[in-house]
Amino acid sequence: MDQQKIQIFDTTLRDGEQVPGCKLNTAEKVEVAKRLEALGVDVIEAGFPISSPGDFGSVEAIAKVVKNATVCGLSRAVEKDITTAAEALKKAARPRIHTGIGTSDSHVIHKLRTTREKVVERAIAAVSLAKKYVEDVEFYAEDAGRTDNEFLAYVCEQAVKAGATVLNIPDTTGYCLPEEYGAKIKFLRENVKGVHNVRLSTHCHNDLGMATANSIAGVLNGATQIECTINGIGERAGNTALEEVVMVLRQHPDLAKYTDINTQQLNAISRYVSETMRVPVQPNKAIVGANAFAHSSGIHQDGVIKNRETYEIINPLDVGVDHSSIVLTARSGRAALAYRMKNLGYELTRDELDVVYAQFLKVADDKKEVEDDDLHGIAEYKQKVAV
Ligand code: KIV
Ligand code: ZN
């Protein structure tokens, strides 16, 4: 079966940077952008140029240094936003303007205080204006997740007619169920004239913890671009995590989709972004969390020591983690203790292991985790009682 390429659109520097306390300066943003390019992302959303002179300068600086990836700047469907984004992107080898407007009733009535007709007019005007500056124009229908499909299809069709090359379908509030979001993408594929000449993009937020599932549902129904951030950072509960969608597609060759991401860099870039943006990664975070390849219960440890694949579906080396770890706690068993003792140079007979294990449990009940230093102490104890 032919494999289909899925583009990765990274918005760590735009949606990700909207997290309170995450603000980066231009030099830091340029460094993140260089690392994203080396990682193999297809599109880097570098910022929202109208939002501040600092953001304008960062988008401009990133546009100058990034050569292979598309560099994208966000704008509302507002003339000054679009001309400012075009100005910031002037030096980009592959510039893209990302423009759009809210389409759900909630946005049309309460946020924009306008009508659907006016929204369509503004969408057409925004895409047409952006098209005067760049060939590659992405249109977003904000809150598409809660927009009725008929109206969404109509707005999208008008955006395509005005020259949009990409249609972004954001689940801005993270409300959709995977089946619902997938069905929305399918509906657009089947009901928007000209959709086959443009790219459909997912942009999912994680308010109900479904951003990754929704993005994958979108791809399975015809989207060929996923918008995401490193570590899933972003507004509120965050955006789709880049490392998660990339690894879902990689670990499921049956889906016949691939990305150009060099997965061995995922762990390093996750740490870099976490440290630079000062957002810790939760230990149990999929793929890049400190515990993603750590085994602590006796049953699991016994399985992993016999064969890694019993409890690991990803080879840690594939995401840049050099080994899995066997963590020793009071829930660990003899196999794990023997394994860790052996790594420290202590080969134990079965009888010795019984003695050492009893001593180990005493230490483990007093501590959250038994470390190498404790194991050396336990080995000395063994010598003293000399079984
Ligand atoms: O979540 C959203 O709708 C967005 C758009 C501005 C693309 O971030
Ligand atoms: Zn967003």
UniProtKB/TrEMBL annotation:
<dbReference type="InterPro" id="IPR000891">
    <property type="entry name" value="PYR_CT"/>
</dbReference>
<keyword id="KW-0100">Branched-chain amino acid biosynthesis</keyword>
<keyword id="KW-0028">Amino-acid biosynthesis</keyword>
<protein>
    <recommendedName>
        <fullName>2-isopropylmalate synthase</fullName>
        <ecNumber>2.3.3.13</ecNumber>
    </recommendedName>
</protein>
<dbReference type="InterPro" id="IPR050073">
    <property type="entry name" value="2-IPM_HCS-like"/>
</dbReference>
<dbReference type="InterPro" id="IPR002034">
    <property type="entry name" value="AIPM/Hcit_synth_CS"/>
</dbReference>
<dbReference type="Pfam" id="PF00682">
    <property type="entry name" value="HMGL-like"/>
</dbReference>
<keyword id="KW-0464">Manganese</keyword>
<comment type="similarity">
    <text>Belongs to the alpha-IPM synthase/homocitrate synthase family. LeuA type 1 subfamily.</text>
</comment>
<comment type="pathway">
    <text>Amino-acid biosynthesis; L-leucine biosynthesis; L-leucine from 3-methyl-2-oxobutanoate: step 1/4.</text>
</comment>
<dbReference type="InterPro" id="IPR054691">
    <property type="entry name" value="LeuA/HCS_post-cat"/>
</dbReference>
<keyword id="KW-0432">Leucine biosynthesis</keyword>
<feature type="domain" description="Pyruvate carboxyltransferase">
    <location>
        <begin position="6"/>
        <end position="267"/>
    </location>
</feature>
<dbReference type="GO" id="GO:0003852">
    <property type="term" value="F:2-isopropylmalate synthase activity"/>
</dbReference>
<dbReference type="InterPro" id="IPR013785">
    <property type="entry name" value="Aldolase_TIM"/>
</dbReference>
<keyword id="KW-0808">Transferase</keyword>
<dbReference type="Pfam" id="PF22617">
    <property type="entry name" value="HCS_D2"/>
</dbReference>
<dbReference type="GO" id="GO:0009098">
    <property type="term" value="P:L-leucine biosynthetic process"/>
</dbReference>
